[in-house]
Write a structure and sequence with these properties.
alpha+beta; single chain; 49% strand; 12-stranded antiparallel beta barrel; 2 domains; Porin
């Protein structure tokens, strides 16, 4: 009997130890399975987000590449570089590759100190992507008792830095008062200078050994959310001109003033303009006599449309 009791107690102890070992092994397996399931779920979620437009592919790719390199060797726990690159390219295509168009039309009536009036119209159109665009602009001026003069430019615009484009193209100009016209090649820059100065600077070269430059800069100053004042400077420089109706070389024209507009909407903007203008005059040729320089105040009102 004592031997039987000892064998029975040892048997119960062995069964109990085996049972506890099985429970512990089962808990370890379930924990590992949960961990693997969690990792797999996280990996699938990250992959889905990286492939979504505007998702993780928009963020810094090196972060996810580093995370992938630091994983424990399981390919499912990290994002693949190829997948991230594809999502990044897809984001660029969706958010930087669209073709868009903006057009601004301005019409202004101006009166000088002697009461002589003039009508001026400007049209600017920009069409293309963030990097490659076509820039079209036209200017028309007609003084009272005179025929109009105008110019039209077509420029290819390439983005080379944040807020800056390099442009190149052609310009056609015509003056109906003396039936003269000219075609010029154009190169220049368009962009936003520090402190939000919108800047346009161009160099022209064309027929009759004409070389010239133009420079425009302005800045918006908000008085209220709808009332905005805009100081500006416009300058035209003639470096050389051998045409029959040439202007004097040097600073041919300078105009500086303040334009104040009220934005009824972002697309409809009436304005008033006060400016001071200097014109150097025409040089003497076989078809015209030299003229003196002129300067004085200009007062204007007009409207802008943006669409």
């Amino acid at each position: 009997m004592p031997i039987t009791k000892k064998l029975f107690s040892k048997t119960l102890l062995s069964v109990a130890l085996i049972g506890f070992s099985g429970v512990a092994f089962a808990n370890d397996n379930s924990t590992e399975n949960l961990d693997n399931d969690s990792r797999s779920s996280t990996s699938e979620s990250m992959n889905i987000l990286s492939n979504e437009p505007g998702g993780l592919g928009y963020l810094n790719r090196s972060f996810y590449q580093n995370a992938s390199n630091k994983n424990d060797g399981d390919n499912g726990t990290g994002l693949k570089t190829a997948s991230v690159n594809q999502s990044h390219d897809k984001h660029i295509s969706e958010h930087g590759g669209q073709i868009y168009q903006v057009t601004k039309f301005e019409n202004q009536w101006t009166v000088d100190e002697d009461g002589n009036g003039a009508l001026g119209s400007k049209v600017e159109t920009l069409i293309g992507t963030d990097e490659n665009r076509l820039f079209l602009k036209a200017n028309l001026d007609k003084s009272e008792s005179n025929d109009p003069k105008y110019d039209v430019s077509a420029l290819y615009s390439r983005n080379v830095a944040p807020f800056w484009d390099i442009q190149a193209g052609v310009r056609y100009s015509e003056d109906r008062n003396n039936n003269s016209n000219r075609v010029d090649g154009v190169v220049g820059i368009l962009g936003l200078a520090p402190y939000f100065f919108e800047t346009q600077a161009y160099l022209y070269g064309g027929e009759n050994n004409f070389w010239g430059a133009s420079f425009d800069v302005d800045r918006d100053l908000l008085l209220t959310q709808k009332l905005i004042t805009q100081p500006y400077i416009e300058a035209d420089i003639v470096l050389n001109d051998n045409s029959d109706f040439a202007s004097k070389t040097g600073l041919s024209e300078l105009k500086t003033g303040i334009k104040t507009r009220y934005e009824i909407t972002k697309r409809i903007r009436p304005f008033v303009d006060v400016a001071y203008q200097y014109e150097k005059g025409l040089k003497e040729t076989r078809f015209q006599q030299a003229t003196d320089s002129e300067k004085g105040w200009l007062y204007g009102a007009g409207i802008e449309f943006v669409f």
